[in-house]
Amino acid sequence: MHQDVERILFTEDQIRAGIDRVAAEVTRTYSSTPFTVVSVLKGSCVFASDLIRRIPIPLELAFVSAASYGEGTTSGALQLNFFPAESEIQGRNLLLVDDILDTGKTLSRLVGEMHRRGARDVKSCVFLDKPARRAVAFQSDFRAFEVDDLFVVGYGLDFAGHYRNLPYVGALRKECYERPRSAMR
Ligand code: XMP
């Protein structure tokens, strides 16, 4: 896997520092407000699990599943596979946590869906923000890092289901997008 990474963009130490900063911001915002972290699967599972352990105030945890990339590196049709139970949304203050804010389509749709299903307040927190790619007007309330317009993998982010377990974030080598899936190490 490591040889498929052209360069490391965020090391484990940098990631830890970025998450500490975001966790402190989230903690301040919700210090007197009950809230639920809604992790957007699959990509945010690594970020969400590190983030919640640095937030020293009560919170609940729920999951939503969204997929837009399939096997490629460009967004396709957005599929929403499952939502938290009604009782976990209605009247709740939700913090949607996602791996990367790219075109903005996933999070803007999810925020709308959560309001439609009766959420009281919906905020969002992303590990990475790629503002150069935005196709719909959307800004997250919290973000750990901004990235250039590169296809990135690691720390939960995948290409065709691989690389999520890299402990750092790296730019994937171009030739890796092009080779057949069966050739992936
Ligand atoms: P949108 O475009 O809806 O995208 O903001 C959000 C989802 O797209 C995926 N995504 C990426 N995944 N490397 C990845 O591994 C990337 O550079 C990248 N850009 C977008 C991701 O699943 C995210 O939740």
What is the CATH first-level class name?
A: Alpha Beta
Q: Write down the oligomeric state.
A: single chain
Computed over alpha carbons, the radius of gyration is 16 Å
Number of domains: 1
Beta content: 25-35%
Number of helices: 4
CATH topology type: Rossmann fold
Total number of β-strand segments?
9
Largest sheet: 6 strands, mixed
Written overview of the protein:
- This protein has one domain: Rossmann fold, CATH 3.40.50.
- It is globular and about 50 Å long.
- By secondary structure, the protein is an alpha/beta fold.
- α2 links the parallel β2 and β3.
- The protein starts with a strand and ends in a 7-residue tail after the last helix.
Write the layout of secondary structure elements.
Blueprint: E1 5-10, H1 12-29, E2 36-41, H2 45-52, E3 60-67, E4 79-82, E5 93-101, H3 105-116, E6 121-129, E7 142-146, E8 152-153, E9 169-172, H4 174-178
Parallel strand pairs: 2-3, 2-5, 5-6, 6-7
Antiparallel strand pairs: 1-9, 3-4, 8-9
The structure holds xanthosine-5'-monophosphate.
Notable features of this structure?
185 residues; Rossmann fold; 4 helices; globular; 6-stranded mixed beta sheet; binds xanthosine-5'-monophosphate; 3-stranded antiparallel beta sheet; alpha/beta
Outline of the structure:
With 185 residues, this protein is an alpha/beta fold.
